[in-house]
Amino acid sequence: MSNELNAVARELVAKGKGILAADESTGTIAKRFDTIAVPSSAENRRAYRDLLFTTSEVENHISGVILYDETIRQSSADGTPFPELLASRGIHPGIKVDTGAKALSGTDDEKVTEGLDGLRDRIMEYRELGARFAKWRAVITIGNDIPSRYCLEANAHALARYASLCVEGGLVPIVEPEVLMDGSHTIERCFEVTSRTLHQVFGALYEQRVPLEQILLKPNMVISGSDCAVPASKEQVAEMTVQCFRRHVPAAVPGIVFLSGGQSDIEATVHLNEINKLGNLPWNVSFSYGRALQASTLQAWLGKADNVPAAQDAFRHRSMCNGKATFGEYTSEVEQQAGV
Ligand code: 13P
Known about the structure:
Elements (H helix, E strand, L loop, with lengths): L1 H11 L5 E4 L4 H9 L7 H12 L8 E6 L1 H4 L9 H7 L3 E5 L4 E3 L7 E3 L5 H10 L4 E8 L8 H21 L2 E8 L7 H21 L8 E2 L16 H15 L6 E4 L6 H14 L5 E6 L1 H11 L6 H18 L6 H5 L4
Parallel strand pairs: 1-2, 1-10, 2-3, 3-6, 6-7, 7-8, 9-10
Antiparallel strand pairs: 4-5
């Protein structure tokens, strides 16, 4: 099992490839559909995911897709179950297994992610359904006096419990501690909080005996808050991100796949590219984007069957641009290439 998980983890971060996060919960996908005035019915959600998963050539740049509980049980228009469709294209199916970030008792506004109860059985079921990796997202908010050490410890403990159960059950755990971009904080403050977060997470993974060769880390980049008065440059984002992760992430971890976290699609590609341009990194560094891979696709689709080819062009293009960014080879010329 251990060799298998290490092999899957390495395939997920193979050079030129990254992960599509298409695991929006029913509530979150409804918000995304609201922006294009599409009702969030089960059939519309299925049709939209079908559009993404049948886009030709994306297997060149997409190594895995994270699904939601509803989606892993749905099928393509021709009746092929989505996990089978993805696997037939050489794309690993993954599954979000947490049940969401909830209020952390004893704090004002901090959150802890739930979903450990019954997780061992759910992992077994998801593996039967074809999943080969999983995701659990912890949410850390930056504020005046937060995050508290209590919040960081509670989330790190749950992430490590989840990761240990995944390894036991045969799924590569993607460990996702997300420090939110929300707020007016500086990049230095994001560095400090990301540093504290990673320290707690890797401490908990060690205590709970999680083999780091069999996991992937899905973190935020070190970046200024979305309302920061003087946003950091792309070079600063790359340098401070790499400095932070070099301090905290052991080289045994096969890969780091960043989330986009509210960056625009182009910003997310540019930042990933700058990070990879620095070179000589101990881990493969790639993407696991939700919004930054899908925003242009949703805008092109608008819920209309006639728009599916244009929407698939948009998805193929963003996948290709991010694939280039894993080599540090993304340029404005690459961005201009239409229909690639
Ligand atoms: P974003 O890239 O939109 O942040 O989504 C990635 C993800 O999976 C968040 O859990």
